[in-house]
Every structure is written in C-alpha cells, then in structure tokens.
Amino acid sequence: MSSNLIRGTFILTLGTFISKFLGLFYVIPFYKIIGGDEAAALYSYGYVPYTIFISIATAGVPLAVSKYIAKYNAIEEYAVGRKLFKSGLVMMMMTGLIAFAVMYSFAPFFAQLSLSGEETTYTIDQVATVIRAVSFALILVPFMSLTRGFFQGHQTMGPSAVSTVVEQVARIVFLLAGAYIVIHVLGGSVVTAISVATFAAFIGAIFALLVLVWYFFKRKKHFDKLLEKDKGEADVSLVGMYSEIVLYAIPFVFVGIAIPLYQLIDQVTFSRAMSEIGLEGQAVAAFGVLNFSTQKLVIIPVSLATAFAMALVPMMTSSFVKGDHHTVKRQLDQTFEVLLYLTIPASVGIALLAEPLYTVFYEHSELGTDVLRVYAPVAILFALFSVTAAILQGINEQRFTILSLLTGILVKLSLNIPLIKMFETEGAVYATALGFGSSIMINLFVIRYFAGYSLRSIGKKISMIVLFNGVMSIVVLSLYGLLSLVLSTASLWPSFLMIIICGVAGAIVYFALSSKTGLLDTLFGSRLDGIKRKLRLKKA
C-alpha cells in the first residue's frame, strides 16, 4: 500500500474515530438529560429523515468530487478540478436551499410516516417540530461537503479530518448545553429540548465550514502552483463535467443512505409489527433502543470503513487510470486485511460485553443488552459494504452498487415485519444483517468478475484473524464470568471496571498473538517500524 494511502487513511481514520467517539460518549449525559428510550426515539424520528436528505443533497459529493479531481490531477489537468470547485459551490448552495425547503415543508408528512399514522407517546406535530429543527443544517452541509471533496481529491486529508472533529465538538457542546438549559433551567418540554438538540447540526456545520475556509486560503498558494503546471489539453465543458460527476455521485448517494434507509424501514414498520403481536405499549421505547441506543454503539467500528472508503477511492482511481493493476490488487489486499483485523475484534468485544456496556452508557436493561449483543456483529457487515462499494467506484463499476443496495433493501423490506413478529426487536436486526449480507455478496462477485480479485488471496490471514478472535473471546468470557461473581453489571462503576479489565485483557491477548505470529508486522510493518524508531530516538 502506498505511503500516501497509508497517511491519508491514518489521518481520516484518526479524525473519523475522534468524531465517532465524541458522538458515542455524548449520549451518556444526553440520555440522562432527556430521560430515556422514548425521548431517544423522538430524536431518531427527526434524525433519520435528515440523514437521508443530507445524503441526497450532498449527492455523494466528497467522494465523487475527490474521485473526479484525482482522475484529472493524475494526468496533470489541474484546471479541470478548479473549474469544478468554483461552479460546484454555487450548485451546492442551491441544492442545500432546495433540500431545506422540501424537508421543512413536508415535515408533517414525514412525522406521520414515522408514527405510522398513529399518535402514541408523541403527536405528529411534535415530531414535525423536531424534523424542522434539524432541517436548517441542510443549508450549509452540501457547501461544506464539496469543499471536503476538493481537498481529498488533492490527497490532502487533514482539512476534512480537522473540520469533522470541530463540527462534532461544536454540535455536541450546543446539543448538551441546549437540552440541559431547556429541561433543567427553563423547565421546558422534552420536545423542545430534542428540537434544540437536533438544531445543533446547523451550529456544527457553521464551525466546520469556517475551518475549511481557513484551510483553503492557507493552502491556496499550493493549489495555484499546481495550476501553473496544468497541461491544458483537456477541454471539459460544465455539462460534460457534471454528467460525469452525476455518474460518480449516484452510487455514492446510495452508499451514504444505506444505513439510514434501513433505519427508515424500521421507523415505518416497527410500531405496526409490534402492535400486531400485542406489544404496542413497548414499541416506542423498543424503537429507541434499536435505532438510537444500540445503533450509537454499533456504528463505532464502522468509522474505520468510512475512513478507508474516503481515502481508497481517489488513490485506487489514480492507480486504475494509470493501468497499474498490481498496485490496485496490493491496495485491496491490505485494505481488507486491516479492515477485518480491526473491525472484527471491536464488534466481538461489544457483543461479549454488551450488558456492562449498555449499563455504562445508558442504564441496566435486559432488552438493550439482548439487542446490542445481536446487533454488534452487524457492524462488520456495515464496514464491508462501505469498503466493497468504494472499491466498485475505484474500478468504475459503480452501477452495481445501486443493484446490490436495492437488493439488500428488498430483502430488508420483505423480512422485517415477519422477523419482528417472530423475534420482536431483535428481528429487525436479523433483517438488517440479511439485507447487508446480500449486498456484500453481490459486490464481492462483481469485484471478482471485473477486477479478478478474490478474498481467497488473503484467506490465510482472515483465518488467523478469526482464530485470534476465538482465543480472545474465550479469555474475555472466562474473565467476565469470574468478575461477575464479585461485580454487578446492574451498577455503573462495577460495569465500567469490568469493561476496562476484560477489554484490556482481550486486547493484550489479540495483539500478542498477532505479534507472535508476525501478522501485526505484515499489516502495519512500515508504520510500526517508524513508531519504534521515534521511540528509540526519544529514549536516546
């Protein structure tokens, strides 16, 4: 794997991980402030439609633009990328305003859809208020996304990573402070507090945009120097440019809205299915567990896949355009190896420690524990889907991304209600797993057919990763059983202590086995050697 890909992936991974971890840990105080799973469900009612709208409004811009710019930069046609950036800023402003107007105007419709036409814990007007509050972020985010794509296309990942972290920090500070003041200072309602919390997305976007503008002017001299090297042989019209961008972007849109679409299916069908088996009284709280509480924990390992996808596409496109298929295969090998090496133990660890984890982040809950335990392994599927879809972009077979996602959605739609009736809340998780599994199988088949690549080439390393996770699981479960004799998973601090002890022990076993067998050096050799050299220099 090239040093640029390693560096770019590392920077984006670091930024994404920081952002995701902030997004994970804020839920602890937020959950306490708003008061439980039903309020969390209201938050999800607003955020799921917003996530879909923002994916459509940005039209997969960061990845699509980065791929387009990387393609023309590879042949030293730098002016094409600058032309796209200038015109795209105007286009994204218009797209954002239109998306905002539609979401704000049709908020009552989306609210009615979320509640399946039945007002239970919350009314349609209350849900519509939350949806309208979050819709303001649509005005700024498309503009911001285009700027991130411009930087990534130049293989400059720092601005995207820093702006992502700043956006998250600003959003969380406003969210927590606003919700707390509304409920505990002003004595306001939960609906008002949740509305303020969702409006925080707009505040975060403002701060992120300021960071990106600062970076652009700081690096403008470098970008201008590239323009001086422009060959000037490519005459691409705006119509041709946007036609190509649309072809790139449409699959990215589908990838971006994959998880939100699955959540939307749950949002529309969950209450109805639960009502049909006589559990309508538990539906809102259970939906909060499914689409907010456990989802926040499960999505953490997926952040690695997101970072890989963002860094992989422009790099792979550059190699593919140059006809360097050997480099493409090497990039694919190490991408899958590192991805599985990190996401599998993270997902397994969450599943093994589901009960104390749920207690620490929220409260002791049998339902929360059961759902988290079965949901955690699905993170591996989320990650694989993101990366395989990114690979299809890199080898210019993105049309199959749409086919695979639609197939997965069809599986989810077909099985969701029957599985919820059979397994209650966990049934929705099973339907999601089957849907994503179907999409991944199609993506892997297409990659094998058009790129001649198969996971069999790294089968030995995958087997080692699985084996090491098995050994790690035995150690963690044994230690967990012993600790359960003296510590209670129903209490916060004992649960926290169990997570630390079991998590550290599992990590030591996993990395020790990897180091002993040479797997760690194979995957991260150059990076580890660099770290070791720096440590030796510091000691000297």
UniProtKB/TrEMBL annotation:
Annotated TM spans: 9-28, 48-69, 89-110, 130-151, 172-191, 197-217, 245-265, 297-317, 338-362, 374-395, 402-423, 429-450, 462-486, 492-513
Regions annotated as coiled coil: none
CDD domains hit by this protein: MATE_SpoVB_like
Keyword NAD assigned: no
GO CC terms, sorted: plasma membrane
Compartment(s) of residence: Cell membrane
Membrane topology summary: Multi-pass membrane protein
GO biological process: cell division
Record carries keyword Ion transport: no
Pfam families, sorted: Polysacc_synt
Keywords, alphabetical: Cell cycle, Cell division, Cell membrane, Membrane, Transmembrane, Transmembrane helix
Record InterPro entries: PG_synth_SpoVB, Poly_Biosynth_Transport, Polysacc_synth
Main location: membrane
Name of the molecule in the record: Cell division protein
Organism name: Domibacillus mangrovi
Classification lineage: Bacteria, Bacillati, Bacillota, Bacilli, Bacillales
